[in-house]
Design goal:
Blueprint lengths: L1 H12 L4 E4 L4 E4 L5 H11 L8 E4 L2 H5 L7 H8 L7 E5 L14 E6 L3 H10 L3 E5 L11 H8 L5 E2 L13 E3 L5 E3 L1
Parallel strand pairs: 1-7, 3-5, 4-8
Antiparallel strand pairs: 1-2, 2-6, 3-6, 4-5, 8-9
Length: about 180
């Protein structure tokens, strides 16, 4: 697996878009600091860039810099669920690249408990863009084989592995209010 992770990281560092397993579905990801890679990901998915993307990370320090001014209890609420299949929307900091949140004022973040996704973030040394591996409006891929069929060579790398077994994508909540944005 070390070789596969190293190949995925090399693809990310070269500005590529990769696919990898997450808690419920396969995700597409790229370096969130690379504007061109993020734009290519939106084009590949045929997704309007105004929708924004979320970031996954191996640990809290990888997402902390993206969080703007928030009450301490908002961070504590999210950290109590991490690592785990919970995505939280925070007010974004000035360090958040403008092309990530789209038309949203906040940034969606998750510290993943999926072992391969966390290993990938750790090896990359940074949070990753994470969006479901599908064209806009089509059901997300749940296996490496489905990803390869859906994107036929358009990806720089596909990391083989099992998803985390959740039936539905992770819930998304507002970190300030606790409101459920996607159940």
């Amino acid at each position: 697996m070390d070789t596969a992770i190293a190949e995925a990281v090399a693809a990310l560092r070269a500005g590529g878009i990769i696919a990898y397993p997450t808690e419920a579905v396969y995700g597409l990801g790229c370096d969130p600091r690379n504007r061109d890679a993020v734009a290519r990901l939106f084009a590949l998915k045929q997704r309007p860039p105004g929708q924004g993307v979320l970031l996954i990370a191996a640990d809290f320090p990888q997402v902390e810099k993206f969080i703007g001014a928030v009450p301490a209890n908002a961070v504590a609420r999210a950290r109590a669920t991490w690592p785990g299949p919970h995505t939280w929307v925070f007010p974004r900091s000035a360090a958040t690249p403008e092309w990530l949140p789209g038309e949203h004022s906040g940034i969606a973040l998750r510290v993943t408990a999926h072992p391969l996704a966390a290993m990938l973030c750790r090896a990359f040394g940074h949070a990753l863009v994470s969006t479901s591996a599908n064209r806009h409006g089509v059901a997300p891929a749940r296996s490496a084989g489905e990803v390869r069929l859906a994107f036929a060579g358009a990806l720089a790398y596909v990391l083989d592995g099992a998803t985390g077994g959740l039936e539905r994508p992770t819930p998304i909540r507002d970190a300030i209010s606790g409101e459920i944005l996607r159940s």
